[in-house]
Amino acid sequence: MPIAALIFDVDGTLAETEEIHRAAFADAFAEAGLPWRWDVDLYRDLLKTTGGKERIRRFLDMRGISASTVSDEAIAALHARKTAFYGTRVAEGGLALRPGVERVLREARTRGLRLAIATTTSRPNIETLLDVVFGAEAADLFETLVCGEDVAVKKPAPDAYVEALRRLDLPAEACLAFEDSANGLASARGAGLATIVTPSLYTGHETFDGAAAILENLEAFDLDVWLRRE
Ligand code: XBP
Ligand code: MG
């Protein structure tokens, strides 16, 4: 079946955003007077849990801090501040798309392909990122954005990609997914999608069994080769 749509992950795939996420968590913890410090090694481990609220809960579990001490509501409030700090940091600029991403998006549009997002990040994060990178063009580029708020279960569960396919009204065989992590790959594969993996800053050590291709980035990615495949 010919490819009709490309579905992109955001964090780590469109851009190297995780250091900005990590800094935004630190901003929120500092503002709340919390002595929590997430260094690179700890954050790499915490990234196995997708979703910022879920990640904070996992950190508390690791520290033996129970839900009766820090409630889900307290985590949600802290995470809302983290989202605000992330937005401010991204809006300040300096975040670039990974090599090859913009070219592949433009070629896809030129060839009449449809574009979608399947991410576990919060909607304001992707909206700010697209706005900063694409400006006025952002609204028309992706047909649909499936975000963390839109699914019951985040990656590695297939829900985000299942929802993207539902919105596109396309079978998995008509789409190609782009991911940077083992969690993301599991999610896309779980929805039946062929998946191109471009490992990122925090996922280079992971294994990507079942990927259709593993590439350093999309610089040398030849879309036409994939469009010719049956
Ligand atoms: C991204 C995530 C997100 C971000 C933080 O995973 O796990 O949780 O780190 O975003 P993927 P929020 O790239 O696989 O979608 O804090 O908004 O949840
Ligand atoms: Mg990712």
Short description:
By secondary structure, the protein is of the alpha/beta class. It has helices at residues 18-31, 40-46, 52-62, 72-91, 101-110, 123-134, 138-141, 159-168, 182-190, 223-228, and strands spanning 5-8, 114-118, 144-146, 175-179, 194-197, 213-214. It has 10 helices and 6 strands.
Structure description:
With 230 residues, the chain is an alpha/beta fold. It has 2 domains: 5-16 and 96-227, Rossmann fold (3-Layer(aba) Sandwich), CATH 3.40.50; 18-91, DNA polymerase, domain 1 (Orthogonal Bundle). The protein contains 10 helices and 6 strands. It has helices at 18-31, 40-46, 52-62, 72-91, 101-110, 123-134, 138-141, 159-168, 182-190, 223-228, and strands at residues 5-8, 114-118, 144-146, 175-179, 194-197, 213-214. It has a 6-stranded parallel beta sheet. Strand 4, helix 9 and strand 5 form a beta-alpha-beta unit. Helix 1 (18-31) crosses helix 4 (72-91) and helix 4 packs parallel to helix 6. The relative contact order is 0.18. The model has no long low-confidence stretch (mean pLDDT 96). Bound molecules: xylulose-1,5-bisphosphate and magnesium ion (MG). Magnesium ion is lined by residues 9, 11-13, 180-181, 184.
